[in-house]
Specification:
By secondary structure, this protein is of the alpha/beta class. The protein has one domain: Rossmann fold. About 30% of the residues lie in helices and about 15% in strands. It has helices at about 10-25, 40-55, 80-85, 115-135, 170-175, 195-200, 215-225, and strands at about 1-5, 30-35, 60-65, 65-70, 100, 140-145, 165-170, 190-195, 205-210, 240-245. A 7-stranded parallel sheet has the order 1-10-9-6-2-3-5, with helices on both faces. Helix 1 packs across helix 2. The two termini are about 15 Å apart. The relative contact order is 0.18. It binds 2-amino-2-deoxy-6-O-phosphono-alpha-D-glucopyranose (GLP).
Amino acid sequence: MNWMHVGDAEELSITAARMLLSALATKPALVLGLPTGRTPEGMYRRVIGECSRQYYCFAEATTFNLDEYVGIPSSHPGSYCSYMKRNLFSHVDIDPDRIHIPNGMPPALTMRPPDISAVVALERECARYEEDLQGAGSLDLTFLGLGTNGHIGFNEPGTDFASRTRIVRLTEATRRANAEHFPGEEVPGHAITMGIATILESRSIVLMASGSKKASVIRRLATESTSDSLPASALHAHKNVLVIVDSAASALL
Ligand code: GLP
C-alpha cells in the first residue's frame, strides 16, 4: 500500500482528477470503478472542468459504481444514480450504455426486503452486475472513499474478504452518516455493493480520505493488521493501491 500526503481536500481532488484523466488519456477504453460520497465530489468537479478545457473523451470508457441503495428508485435525489448524474455523467461525453450502477429497485421489486420476491429480484440484479463486470474485462482503475468505520463501497465491518456483489444491511452509523441526503425521510436500510473480492480484482485502486472525521480510521488503516473488523484493510493484500490523504485525515499518523 503506497501513501500520498497532500495538503487539503482541494489538492486531493486535483491529484485524483489528474490520475483519472491521465489513465483515460492512456487508455480511452478504460474500465473505471467509481465511488460516491462527499470525498470524490471535488475530483468529479475537476474532471468536468478539465474535460471542457481539454479534449479528454469518456466516449470509450466504461464505468461501474461501487454501490446503490435498495428500495428507492434511481430517480430519487438521494440515490447514487442521481448523485452520479449530478456530479459527473450529465457533464461528460460518456455513452449511457457504458454506465453501470446497481439497480436497487429492479422492476420485480414491489416490496422491500425481507419480502422473498424482493430478495430474489435483488439477488438476480447482483448476479447480473457481476456478469457485466466480468464481461467488461474487469476493472482497470477504481477510486474508493472510506467510511468512518472503515467500510469501502458498502462493505461494513465483518464483511468476508471473499465477498462479491450482494445485498447488504447498512449499520446505524452508516445510515446516520448519510442522513443528510434523505431529508425528512428514512435512510434506506439496505444497499447493493460490490464485494471486497470484486473490488480487489481492479488492476489499480486509489483510496481517498479527507477531513478530520477520517483521522482515526486512517490511523487504524496505517497501523492495524488486516482484519475483517476494518474492511479497508483488505487493500493491504493488493499490489497496486495508493492511499491519498489530506493533512486533516492524516493528523493522527
Ligand atoms: C458512503 C458510500 C461509500 C463512501 C462513504 C464515505 O457510505 N457508500 O462508498 O466511501 O460514503 O463517504 P464520504 O466521502 O461522504 O465520507
